[in-house]
């Protein structure tokens, strides 16, 4: 039986710091042309696809400020200029004017053809980036402009193009079978080394088109073990620590941690295609068995919010629009055996799985647990190999709009459909939400789509997380981004 991380003696935390000793290759750095030292960054998840921007690794490139997109999002999720300075819609086509004077880290210039090359590669990828689920997108160069066209009129094209998975890289990045971002971005930091799943290094790019980075560089270490990440902050081995586990927050200097409400939901996905949960009544029984409040108090120590739906308090309009959902009546589990999966990369999830195992067993299920590192379990989860799967899922990660997440996870052809859901009413509601123009009407359509999903019990939202980030005393202006797109920016430095 796994011992809860919060019960690990403090000496174990100290011992874990030894795992990081010497792991950051960067020294104090040369601050002659900037401010402070190189920043040592401990990240939670190792790259899963060689830092390809066509995968979730894109968000690492974004958080390191090395790869950029045509558009970025403001705090409200509205589109702002980045590599594109302006855009105009004409039916299903959007024309984007590119910023002058931008060079890639390999010295080549940002051109319309370079943008077309990146977007075309993304659109043709298999699997597609999540932000393009259900979207047929083409890009064409027109002087200093790029025309992006979708098969049907899409009000979210600018927001889609803000996704880090649609980062624009130099032509050299695409010469092989896989996309290699080393030395190919446009951001204030140049990725100079990528050492597999262990580390990466970035240097300030002095030819950057915008504000120059204050820090001379970033040294990244991938540390899946949450106790070791927290220990790195305590021992001074790391300057910025991503995703400090709730269990470790209490043993850290509270002045060094920041709690950020996240548009992230801890959800129990139920396999609707086969096994025990093919039966809607059995899914309803599982839903009624879940006691989310006890999980929030016991596992998250109160540092989370009990879920009322898939969309949480980071999107306050969701609660205002939400109405009661009609669901199936719970049946009798009758001792059915189910396999419940989750992963270790987020330290709380194994404890959540253990708590859920007890709750489901009390309701009459027999529950087997399968807990692994995410890289070793994702493919099985997507293939429907589990009866149930616990996932910590960002709900507006890609576009700032939850419609893309809902489509990806619950549409019949969604690329992240762990529940294997294929429901005509859900597809109809998701399609309407995706077509509705931005604003109040779209928000209402999104909530209607959420209700359609919840009505199937394909997903049981349990809680909304808050991320805890650790910043050493000398760190100034590290980003605390609910969307997990920014971390070290041009303004971040270490005294």
What is the averaged pLDDT score? 91
Strand content: 15-25%
Distance separating the two termini? 44 Å
What is the helix tally? 14
* Total E-strand runs: 19
- Give a short account of the largest sheet: 11 strands, mixed
Summarize the structure.
The protein has helices at residues 10-17, 58-63, 112-123, 157-160, 226-235, 246-249, 280-289, 292-298, 316-321, 348-363, 378-382, 402-410, 424-435, 440-456, and strands at residues 39-43, 71-73, 79-81, 84-90, 93-98, 137-142, 145-150, 189-195, 199-204, 217-222, 240-241, 257-270, 304-306, 337-343, 366-372, 388-394, 459-471, 475-476, 493-494. It is of the alpha+beta class and 495 residues long.
Relevant terms:
eleven-stranded mixed sheet; 14 helices; globular; single chain; four-stranded antiparallel sheet; 495 residues; alpha+beta
Write the layout of secondary structure elements.
Layout: H1 10-17, E1 39-43, H2 58-63, E2 71-73, E3 79-81, E4 84-90, E5 93-98, H3 112-123, E6 137-142, E7 145-150, H4 157-160, E8 189-195, E9 199-204, E10 217-222, H5 226-235, E11 240-241, H6 246-249, E12 257-270, H7 280-289, H8 292-298, E13 304-306, H9 316-321, E14 337-343, H10 348-363, E15 366-372, H11 378-382, E16 388-394, H12 402-410, H13 424-435, H14 440-456, E17 459-471, E18 475-476, E19 493-494
Parallel strand pairs: 1-10, 1-11, 14-15, 14-16
Antiparallel strand pairs: 2-3, 4-5, 5-7, 6-7, 8-9, 9-10, 11-17, 12-16, 12-17, 13-17, 18-19
């Amino acid at each position: 039986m796994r011992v809860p991380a919060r019960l690990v003696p403090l000496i174990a935390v100290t011992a874990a710091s030894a795992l990081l000793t010497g792991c950051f290759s960067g020294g104090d750095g040369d601050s002659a042309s900037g401010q402070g030292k190189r920043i040592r960054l401990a990240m939670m998840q190792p790259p899963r696809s060689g830092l390809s921007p066509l995968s979730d690794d894109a968000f690492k490139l974004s958080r390191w400020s090395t790869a950029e997109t045509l558009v970025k999002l403001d705090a409200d999720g509205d589109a702002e200029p980045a590599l594109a300075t302006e855009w105009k819609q004409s039916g299903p086509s959007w024309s984007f004017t590119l910023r002058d004077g931008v060079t890639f880290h390999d010295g080549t210039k940002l051109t319309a053809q370079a943008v077309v090359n990146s977007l075309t590669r993304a659109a043709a990828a298999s699997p597609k980036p999540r932000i393009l689920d259900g979207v047929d997108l083409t890009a064409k160069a027109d002087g200093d402009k790029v025309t992006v066209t979708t098969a049907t009129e899409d009000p979210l094209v600018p927001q889609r193009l803000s996704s880090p998975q649609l980062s624009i890289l130099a032509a050299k990045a695409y010469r092989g079978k896989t996309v290699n971002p080393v030395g190919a971005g446009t951001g204030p930091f140049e990725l100079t080394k990528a050492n597999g799943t262990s580390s990466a290094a970035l240097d300030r790019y002095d030819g950057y088109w915008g504000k120059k980075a204050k820090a001379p560089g970033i040294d990244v270490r991938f540390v899946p073990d949450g106790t070791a990440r927290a220990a790195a902050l305590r021992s001074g081995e790391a300057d910025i620590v991503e995703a400090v586990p709730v269990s470790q927050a209490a043993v850290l200097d509270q002045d060094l941690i920041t709690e950020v409400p996240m548009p992230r939901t801890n959800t129990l996905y139920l396999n609707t295609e086969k096994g025990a949960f093919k039966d809607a009544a059995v899914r309803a029984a599982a839903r009624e068995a879940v006691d989310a409040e006890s999980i929030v108090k016991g596992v998250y120590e109160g540092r989370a919010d009990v879920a009322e739906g898939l969309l949480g308090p980071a999107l306050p309009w969701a609660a205002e629009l939400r109405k009661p959902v009609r669901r199936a009546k719970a049946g009798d589990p009758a001792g059915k055996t189910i396999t419940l999966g989750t992963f270790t990369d987020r330290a709380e999830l194994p404890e959540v799985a253990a708590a859920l195992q007890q709750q489901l067993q009390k309701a009459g299920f027999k529950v087997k647990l399968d807990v692994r590192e995410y890289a070793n379990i994702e493919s099985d989860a997507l293939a429907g190999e589990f009866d149930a799967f616990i996932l910590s899922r960002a709900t507006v990660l890609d576009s700032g709009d939850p419609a893309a997440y809902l489509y990806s996870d619950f549409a019949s052809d969604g690329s992240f459909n762990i529940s294997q859901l294929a429901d005509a009413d859900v597809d109809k509601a998701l399609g309407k939400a995706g077509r509705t123009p931005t604003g109040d009407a779209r928000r209402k359509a999104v909530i209607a789509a959420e209700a359609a999903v919840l009505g199937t019990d394909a997903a049981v939202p349990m809680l909304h997380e808050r991320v805890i980030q650790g910043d050493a005393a000398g760190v100034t202006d590290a980003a605390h981004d609910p969307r997990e797109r920014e971390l070290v920016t041009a303004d971040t430095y270490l005294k």
